[in-house]
Amino acid sequence: ANETIAVVFFVDADLKRCQQMFSDLNRYAIRPSKSLGILYDYRDDFSLLTKEIIARSDFFKNVVEMEKSSLSPRSRKLFTLSALYSATKALLKNVEGDGESLVELGVKFWESIANQLKEWKLVNENRLSSGEVRGDYIHSHSIALHALGIAGNALIKNHPKRWQTKLKKLSSIDWARSNSSVWEGRTLVGGMIHKASNNVVLTSNYIKTNLGLDLTPEELKAEKAFLKGHNGN
């Protein structure tokens, strides 16, 4: 019996076009990792912004896994591209500015965060393993990055001239997983990281409160429901 296989040929114009084609084909067929899709996507503005922020940041250059969306315990990377993409998208949501100014703001924000979280700096200086940090603290996980992006967005909009100074309060937060009185039910469920949308909101609420920011009506509603259940009322 005659058998045929459909083959589609594409003109190899340049590397960027091939990578975009790879992203398009795989995002809508057999999905690659989210990080790999973002890495090869040249149409999405936030993909471009996030990759440029990483490229320009002295801190991020060596600690971001660009292709995989999960990290093994032995990985030397601290973050994934997909986690930083979601966090940066939350950070820059509805922030005015052109591409260049948003990249500069993103670099400044994330490096300011790194200056307040000593474990991040120790990993970057090869004085602490990324696996230890991910195992013992919540601040390098995608839920915390996303929450920091949400809080950062509110901080930048409400305090455009003083947001860097206010970020110093982050260093007083106990980010350890063992701090269950704060993180259990908010960021952790049964001691495990749990990134449901409500957990992102609750984690962001705690950060925003520590930064002296008001919660939105929706955030306040989620916080009241959490506290009611947490206190057994």
Helix/strand/pairing category: mainly alpha
Number of domains: 1
Beginning-to-end CA distance, first to last residue: 72 Å
- Give the amount of beta strand, in percent: under 5%
Number of helices: 12
**Cα-based radius of gyration, to the nearest Å:** 20 Å
Please outline the major beta sheet: 2 strands, parallel
The total strand number stands at: 4
SSE string, helices as H and strands as E: HHHEEHHHHHHHEEHH
What is the overall pLDDT average? Answer: 91
Give the overall form: globular
The unreliable regions are none
DSSP helix fraction: 40-55%
**Biggest sheet: strands side by side, in what order?**
1-2
Q: How would you describe this structure to a colleague?
A:
- With 233 residues, this protein is mainly alpha-helical.
- The chain has one domain (45-230).
- Helices cover 55% and strands 3% of the residues.
- The chain has 12 helices and 4 strands, in the order H-H-H-E-E-H-H-H-H-H-H-H-E-E-H-H.
- It has helices at 15-27, 34-39, 45-56, 81-91, 99-116, 118-124, 130-136, 142-158, 163-166, 180-183, 197-210, 217-230; strands at 64-65, 79-80, 188-189, 192-193.
- The strands form 2 sheets. A two-stranded parallel sheet has the order 1-2. The chain has a two-stranded antiparallel ribbon with strand order 3-4.
- Strand 3 (188-189) and strand 4 form a beta hairpin.
- Helix 3 (45-56) crosses helix 4, helix 4 packs parallel to helix 8 and helix 8 packs across helix 11.
- The chain is globular, with a radius of gyration of 20 Å.
- It starts with 14 loop residues before the first helix and ends with a helix.
- 34% of the residues are buried.
- The mean pLDDT is 91.
